[in-house]
Amino acid sequence: MFAERFRSHHDAEGSLEVLLGKPPGGHLGRLLAMTSWSAVEKKLGESPRGLPRGVYIHVPYCDRICSFCNLNRKERSGADLDAYAAYIAGELKAFGAYPYIREQPFNTVYFGGGTPTVLSTDQLALIMDALHRHIPLAGDCEITVETTQHNLGVKKAATLADMGVNRFSVGIQTFSDRGRKVLGRTFGGEKALEELYALRAAFNGVLGIDIIYSYPDQSLEELKRDAEICVSSGIDSVSFYSLMIHKGSALARSIERGETRFIRNLEWDRERHHLFYKTLGGAGFNLLELSKLARPGRDPYRYIHIQYENGDLLPIGSGAGGRLAGFGIYSMAPERRFVSPANKRHERYYRMLGEFQFGLYDPPGMGLAPGAEKAVVEKLNELGGLGFLSPVPRGSAWALTPDGIFWGNNIAVEVLKAAIHATKKEKTVYA
Ligand code: SF4
Fold it and tell me: What's domain 33-307's superfamily in CATH?
């Protein structure tokens, strides 16, 4: 049914943008819809709106650049990390002075990147101190740090845990030596495994890892071993992504030059997806979102819920994006932020796309525009007939089948298409 697979929700977001059409007035309209920081400041002077809320802190540096990566990051060499940590701490202090921030606790804090642990323990301590001092955190606030293995280590992890970090998301990608070489990872597979065991033994909080499947020439044995390690190593959750070849990445260039052989078709990709999913599912892992599996009750992952459900997300740091007090905010650099008022129509569909990531479709609870439910139910029935969804007993909801999970972002776009086409006359309303 689908010619091309959307491998991430970013692909689906791109399609959603096309479906929603250009904002009124096209590109000029988009620019005119942008607003000044003083409009945000005015709202920040008011009381919060009671939405669930999180802080996103971006550290855009890595020790070295992985061959497949196109994230917002650069190599750390030459960067003044002391100055960057001080800038983050200053931002936390400045935002903490506003009533909108001060008057309601935050449920989650996420350090993403890049690699936040390129910062030294002292630099991280400076940021953590500012966080605890200036931002009200809920008693059970989830604090996640994304990390690679070579700049974490058990000692640094323990220090971070003392500072309140209760969730690590560790980029490992594979335990295969050959695969790690292709992906440009530091360490061989055995060292990666050793480090993971040591971290698991020392850290009681939530431990999640990232795995990439369908990398060049990956054998089923290599994949099965990665899946079995996920089961036996005692981790709580795993994000599993089919390798994406991003234009301009080192890997893309190597494939173009013919130095790396990469032949992938959908069946090859599907076989690897299903093997990974089946191995972890058989060991009791559940679907947490389309590309994430978790042991039951072990990883609430509040950050992603707040992000997908359009909660408030305070963006801190160069390259951080978020949403606050009815404004979309993107921080380019210190003192340089782009702000636009939230577009209510777009937010409704982005929220739906976010909720579809959890693998469940329940039309009465989707927040559909009037008149769209019939078209969506018809679409779900059609997709059910094709084997992508199955009805959940005693209710109106549908759950994705393993094939549906594989095609999950394509299915989300199909359902959104039905919802949007059924309400073509809907107007764009800015908050
Ligand atoms: S460590 Fe992570 S963010 Fe940095 S280059 Fe590798 S994949 Fe990208």
Answer: tm_1862 like domain (3.80.30.20)
